[in-house]
Amino acid sequence: ELEKMRRDFVANVSHELRSPLSSIRGFLEAMEDGTIPTDEHEKYIEIVLDETRRMSGMVNDLLDIARIESGQYKLNLSVFDINDLIGRVLITFEARITAKHADVDAQLDYEPVFVEADRDRIGQVLHNLIDNAIKFMPENYGLLTIKSVVSKHKVYVSVCDNGPGIPKEDIAHIFDRFYKAEKAHTYKNGSGTGLGLSIVKLVIDQHHGEIKAESSENGTVFTFSLKQALPPPRRQPAAE
Ligand SMILES: Nc1ncnc2c1ncn2[C@@H]1O[C@H](COP(=O)(O)OP(=O)(O)O)[C@@H](O)[C@H]1O
Ligand SMILES: [Mg+2]
Question: Is residue 104 in some structural domain?
């Protein structure tokens, strides 16, 4: 069983790397032999660059997965405010959100909500979830809702979109490596690798948190939980 998984994995990686690689090669050859005229080179160089970026992204994701799974990656724990981190990650998506004319509804407490976790890794989790939400939301009237709620010493963060949703038969598999639901294949900007959610799951598992996906034709909500932490001792409010 393990051996089969390993073979599938190698086959998947090779396949996923081969398609961008062959398109890069095809475009470069066509530019070299003049099939693509010089005045169109700029456009094709952009495409080639996009493909190389996608490939490096994928190799980085694979390295992350390999490191986490081998147990080599120790969490770098610190106490931080998850609402602050959510805000910081959101800012990095500002351009894409504006380009898509989408709305953001951040329902975060003004109060800081502390967790003890690996800040970079949780940032990556937020990044991957928000990236999907923006990717799959409609071109017009897209809405991204992010909430953080504290209940019984746990912090629940949810990332919600009003996209087409994930079909019932796919939802059990979306955390699998390389899994892309059928709709995603034909999606315009949907040329992902199917690794984002596997990393999300590995990271949340490593934190002993929980993650779940709920979806309908009105959209999708991903909710993960982490243990709430006490505020770091040093940051006591100054006397008024
Ligand atoms: N917010 C979402 N709305 C609809 N489908 C989603 C959403 N998030 C994830 N999916 C589905 O789960 C699949 C796996 O997601 P992910 O692991 O991030 O891979 P990728 O984004 O590279 O396709 C996606 O291809 C898509 O089919
Ligand atoms: Mg993704």
Answer: yes
